[in-house]
């Protein structure tokens, strides 16, 4: 008996975890990355099984103290419930509903459909009417429309998140930084990585002059961010810095470069590129 009980407990645990795993998978929660969640479910499962064992023992103890009449009266409600749901005939009345069909000695009874089945059938009809009315009369959102709505909202949420997540910004979301701390960080990055080709005052050497209004690949924060990130002209421009600098650092150095517009370097290089006029 104990072996059967342990086997039943194991089956119950497997079923519970399978159901929870399916529900959490639909909720996009990875149990493998949530060990505390698994521990919590395990503790809850043990508590449920332990509580069930206690209740079962108390029920057995109480049943041992009941008389035969008391046990019968307690089971009457269950028998009445099953009778109302199945509408089965007593064995004594089966002769009245016996049919003339015989299959290998097995005779068929003309039982009525059980009420639970009939009620379920009626409920399915009511559900079908409501379903058809909602989706085909009132144009309710189907799964495809709900998916498209969720995807559109997700895109909005991601775009909003990118606005505040510094290392997720790109050329389409970058904005000119004006805080002193950002510009100072940009200056440090420029002196360490850019001054070798553009000089410390950005007047230009191998690279172009960054203090005038002429740009080879366009001015403005978005163009400068893209140039630093993806590199300059093929074959003769600077290397892409996106593998070395984070998006936040590229935004800082790009903003610092633009803050040098209009300054006067010691030996400015002749202008290159086209005059940039902000739109």
The share of residues in helices is: 55-70%
Mean model confidence by pLDDT: 81
Envelope shape: elongated
Low-confidence segments, given as residue ranges, are none
The count of β-strands is 4
Going by CATH, what is the homologous superfamily of the domain at 180-275?
A: Cytochrome c-like domain
Walk me through this protein's architecture.
The protein has 279 residues and is mainly α. Among the domains are: 1-60, no CATH class; 180-275, Orthogonal Bundle (Cytochrome Bc1 Complex, Chain D, domain 2). Helices cover 58% and strands 5% of the residues. It contains 9 helices and 4 strands. Strands 1-2 form a two-stranded antiparallel ribbon. Strand 1 (98-103) and strand 2 form a beta hairpin. The longest helix is centred in the first third of the chain and has 30 residues, at 35-64. The mean pLDDT is 81.
Précis, in short:
The chain is mainly alpha-helical. It is built from nine helices and four strands; from the N terminus they run αααββααααβααβ. It has a two-stranded antiparallel sheet with strand order 1-2. A two-stranded antiparallel ribbon has the order 3-4.
Give structural attributes.
279 residues, mainly alpha, Cytochrome Bc1 Complex, Chain D, domain 2, two-stranded antiparallel ribbon, two-stranded antiparallel sheet, 9 helices
């Amino acid at each position: 008996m104990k072996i059967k009980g342990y086997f039943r407990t194991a089956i119950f645990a497997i079923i519970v975890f399978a159901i929870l795993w399916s529900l959490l998978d639909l909720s996009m929660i990875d149990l493998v990355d949530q060990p505390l969640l698994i521990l919590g479910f395990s503790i809850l499962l043990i508590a449920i099984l332990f509580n069930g064992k206690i209740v079962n023992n108390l029920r057995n103890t109480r049943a041992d103290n009941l008389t035969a009449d008391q046990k019968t009266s307690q089971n009457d409600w269950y028998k009445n419930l099953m009778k109302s749901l199945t509408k089965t005939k007593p064995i004594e009345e089966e002769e009245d509903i016996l049919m003339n069909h015989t299959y290998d000695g097995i005779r068929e009874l003309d039982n009525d459909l059980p009420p639970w089945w009939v009620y379920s059938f009626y409920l399915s009809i009511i559900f079908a009417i409501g379903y058809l009315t909602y989706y085909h009369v009132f144009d309710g959102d189907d799964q495809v429309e709900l998916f498209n709505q969720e995807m559109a909202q997700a895109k909005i949420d991601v775009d909003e998140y990118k606005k505040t997540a510094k290392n997720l910004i790109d050329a389409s979301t970058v904005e000119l930084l004006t805080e002193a701390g950002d510009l100072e960080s940009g200056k440090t990055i420029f002196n360490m990585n850019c001054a070798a080709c553009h000089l410390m005052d950005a007047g230009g050497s191998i690279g172009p002059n960054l203090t005038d209004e002429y740009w080879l690949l366009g001015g403005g924060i978005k163009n400068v961010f893209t140039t630093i990130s993806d590199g300059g002209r093929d074959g003769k421009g600077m290397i892409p810095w996106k593998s070395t600098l984070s998006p936040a650092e590229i935004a800082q150095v790009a903003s610092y470069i633009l803050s040098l517009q209009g300054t006067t370097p010691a030996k400015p290089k002749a202008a290159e590129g086209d005059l940039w006029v902000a739109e």
